[in-house]
Amino acid sequence: MPGSARTYSAIAGIAVTAVAVAIFVVLIIPALSQQQQQQNPSDQQRKSSLKVAVVTDALFSDRGWGESSLNAAKQIERKYGFEVATQDNVEIPDIESVLEKYADAGYDLIIAHGVQWGEPALSVGRQHPDVKIVVFAGLVKSENVASIFPMQQEGSFLLGAIAGMMTKTNVIGYVGGEEYPSVINILEGYKQGAKTVNPDVRIIWTYLNDWDNPAKGKEAATSIIRQKADVIFHVADTSGHGVIQAAKENGGVYALGAVQDQNSLAPDTVLSSFILDVDKAYDQAVDSVVKGDFKGEIYKSGIETGKGAPGDGIVYLAPFHGLKDKVPENVNARLQELLADVLEKRLVVPERLEETTTVAGRI
């Protein structure tokens, strides 16, 4: 029958042993864990103590390039649990002094958002060897300076293909903020994409030498539209808002945006945009410092299927949103084929930092 004396004795012994083990777990294990943490600080501890700054010459309010850096800084704060210092609208002559300010203040990592920060980053990096600097869209490196150069031409190639297939006039346009190598590279990808699907297309382009002048962007875009362009692409920060407005005011003209999904600026006009996955890029930079495996290299990351996708890609396309019914099925199918070809390296969109002169021309 159940409940003999031996059974009760065994149960009592087990209970005593269990209590002893519980006391050991409660009192001893935490002490050992605390001692181990003191000897080997965890990644979480390093995360909480890391000082990070994000700086840019762009505007955080531009709905594009500058805002993407602010959004990425906020994402870092949410993920890692520390405050990120931010500063925008830095004048070009002040770039080096701004970097020095954060380096002198003991920041572990400074993320500089813009190609203009490259040479000043090298200079400040030499003076502050313990500070890590990452230049987004840069092409510089040293022992403590790295660059993340998004292969934006892969995204603009796909936008060029969209433009080349969607145009009814065989004329498309491009407006750049300034003739930087990275902006030229984007234009060259756009040209290649358009010519791949439509050898007869004509591309008209111009540079504004002004990133924050919507009126100037609108004027330039209007001039291109008057030359029969019915799809126009900008890489011009807030000046690009004027490009989009010009397309909106000229019925039947589509606009293509840059850096962020700009459909919300004109839902019936902005057909798509190439987007930079800045959140992912900044997270990779912070993670490398947290883990102690930062390397002063130039990282060139291209296309991905969507935000946060596996792999190193940091460039992807925005959906067509409410304009998807305007895009013929054969156009969408061809676009998906080209995306797969670029992803699988069956089709190469090379870096071209100088303009080719074999297609179209400027205004």
TrEMBL record:
Transmembrane segments: 7-32
InterPro entries: BMP_lipoprotein, Peripla_BP_I, PnrA-like
Parts forming coiled coils: none
Location of the ABC transporter substrate-binding protein PnrA-like domain: 51-306
Subcellular location: Cell membrane
Pfam families membership: Bmp
GO cellular component terms attached to this protein's record: plasma membrane
Keywords: Cell membrane, Lipoprotein, Membrane, Signal, Transmembrane, Transmembrane helix
Presence of keyword Acetylation: no
Membrane topology (UniProt): Lipid-anchor
Claim: Iron is one of the keywords in the record: no
The family this protein is said to belong to: Belongs to the BMP lipoprotein family.
Identification of the protein by name: Bmp family protein
